[in-house]
Amino acid sequence: MRSSGEPGACDPCLRRAWLVGSLSARIERSLGGRPGGRARELLALPDETLAAAVGGGPEIVAQASEREGSRLRAAVAGAGAWACCRHDPEFPESVRRPADAPRVLFGRGNPRLLGRLHSDRCVTIVGARRPSAYGREMAELLGRELGAAGLVVVSGMALGIDSCAHAGALDAEGLTVAVLGSGPDVPHPMRMRKLHERITERGLVLSELPPGTTPRRWTFPARNRIMAALSAMTVVVEGRERSGSLITATLAGEGGRDVGAVPGRVGSATAAGPNSLLHQGAHVIRGGQDVLDVLCGVGAQPRGSSVPGAPAATVPPELAAVLVEVDGGAATQDEVARGAGLDPAMAAVALTRLELLGLLACDSAGRYRRTLRRAEEVA
Predict the structure, then answer these.
(1) What is the C-alpha separation between 362 and 248, in angstroms, rounded?
(2) Strand order in the sheet with 204-207
(3) What pTM, to 2 d.p., does this model score?
(4) Helices (H) and strands (E) in the chain, counts
(5) pLDDT per residue over 346-365, tens digit each?
(6) Are the beta carbons of 262 and 255 closer than 8 angstroms?
């Protein structure tokens, strides 16, 4: 099954995966407008029962069972991917256990990184596809801090929170894993193609669907169960009360994993999901250290310097004075200049430098505010 220490997949598991891929359109039709939990129930069924449940005849199962394993492996390799089935030692143990677990994980990236996917070292970060600026900053911050701390950042490579979490981990040179609702070689949405390439080069892209499979509505809630199973904690940054992010958090809780949420403004639609989770007892997540406190013990120190608690460097004094003023409520160039005792032109230069460093953000009205980035990250 294996060669050169790389993972592999046996013929029966590969045939099952291709059967699911072949039935994808039928599964979609059979689920109608309820692609969530029902998809998981279907994926737990044996081949013949699954095919019958979605309107497929025995001939579909027969065709799948006749596929040659060597040709299936050649198709995977031809797509620049690899496959690891649940019988292979490299298959993540936490994903192997559920009754609806995938038989195969198809992947892109270095397959040897599978050995680092221990559930106690992985954190799933999910959230809204159309987050607020605050949500984006928090997702990037968490990805960056957890990646710097040596944890594996897992997400779904969707627009918004997911992609921000991946980007943060990559910026920290940490390991990040994208779990797709399409084949591992099919970036979705297509605008995430560059991010898909970056993750492939430095992390892992995983899917239970064979290469070339296009996504459908049911494949996204289905992949959520893999994301939840991979990690010791699922953190919801932003999301509505009825969203895929909350599905992932629910699955994590049902699987005995920790659930965390980033507090949001009361009344905000995108904060409704995490605030509801907090009301139900989820861990309050304000940054990477809160995650580390839960998973590694209170006060656990990361290996990097970008997480709270690590030694902090400072920006130059002339910039630090401006940051102090903005922290104190100064929002315009004139207010900063008066508070810091600077010439307006010097204040303008300092504000621009801080904005370029990512420590300040300026809105369309010319008002400045602090971002979630820390001074020690740019020193």
Answers:
(1) 34
(2) 82-85, 104-109, 204-207, 176-179, 152-155, 122-126, 233-236, 258-261, 283-284
(3) 0.80
(4) 17, 11
(5) 999 999 988 888 888 888 77
(6) no
